[in-house]
Amino acid sequence: MTPEALAHARRRAELLATMQSGKASSGAPLGLGKRSSNLFRDRHEGAKRRLDLSAFCHVLDIDTAGGWVDVEGLTSYEELVAQTLRRGLMPAVVPQLKTITVGGAAAGVGIEATAHQHGLVHDTLLELDVLLPGGEVLHCTPDNEHRDLFFGFPNSYGTLGYALRLRLRTLPVKPYVKVEHLQFDAPGAFFINLAAHCQGHADFVDGVVFGPQQQVINRACFVDAAPWLSDYRFEHIYYRSLLDKPVDYLTVQDYIWRWDTDWFWCSKNLYAQHPLVRRLLGRARLNSRFYTRVMRWNARWGLTRRLARWRGRFTESVIQDVDIPMAAAPDFLAFLLREIGILPIWICPVRGPAPDARFTLFPLAPDSLYVNFGFWDVVETAHACEPGHFNRLVEREVMRLGGIKSLYSDSYFTPQEFAQAYGLSHYQALKARYDPSGRMLGLYEKCVLRA
Fold it and tell me: CA–CA distance from 4 to each of 7, 9, 52, 166, 365 (Å)?
């Protein structure tokens, strides 16, 4: 056994001993004690027994020949990418923000521009060890006795257990990435070409909708050499380059984290795209970690909401990622432009799972192509709407078009809608088997009722 594996086994034994000694200390639900979170929904949390898993933050093993990495659940993708790149590899799907943890991306839904080939983060899982709320650790694979938990864990959001160790597929990388920015002025042609590029040889495919007559497909490939290199970690802003540069080159690391510096484009809400503010903040604060802290402070004190009311405006935060079948993508974009009005919109094609790998709580059609729409901003109106008005519009349209919505942000589903969208009958069977005493909250309680 390697030193890393021995250290992991020791951490696991200490954790289980701690859980065993504290079993009867409280009847409150079990919750994860994290100092940071990439969830974007307000929570009205009651008392919880907080479990500290922060020690489980190590990369345990990298198998270059086998094409996999073993990693603990609280490891950030920033750390995982740094270690795999040293070996000429990257995780097959790397979510966009450095602070996302591997276990969080598996328990939630992680996506990036390799998803047109490799699916979502959970599609790249080979095995995982899950800590159950009762203090037992189960080894789960696609074909062992706990395959139901393997396929039921993604999108369970810490209501069935926590991933202590995960094995993920990796991809070989080259030093640089060449990015082509292909501009379109009609959504129909944009989506037709997006689907075509997903069938080609691109290593990465994503896009941005800037407006009804301005869309860009970003088609990128690994290359061994680059005639020049762009740097979007400080003064220059990546998303603006999509309209200015037909071709661009970045190091592989800078490409992987191209969206983190400006939180895609949401840094504009902190005025961080103004040159003077940008210099005052400095490189160290131009990242998702800093923006998230500011966002949580604002959510707590409601500063922007109060300023809007002072101006006679009413606001609703609409922070959503939804997956829509490719054939329905033009209809959904038309809806967004007409009813929501948030721009830009991130576009990321997603390949559905293999026919024998259906994930219970995120049921995409096998081998089908979906389009992820990411839109994150505040909608302002001159009149008051019922709470969640615009988010409800989004949810209804997603369901009408046969899509599915990620649950990291505000949700307003009725219990019946939620059960229909996320296969709650299957979830209840998982809950009965792996959390029979109800030590963790249920999925609807946590993701919709914000418990």
Answer: 5, 9, 20, 14, 38
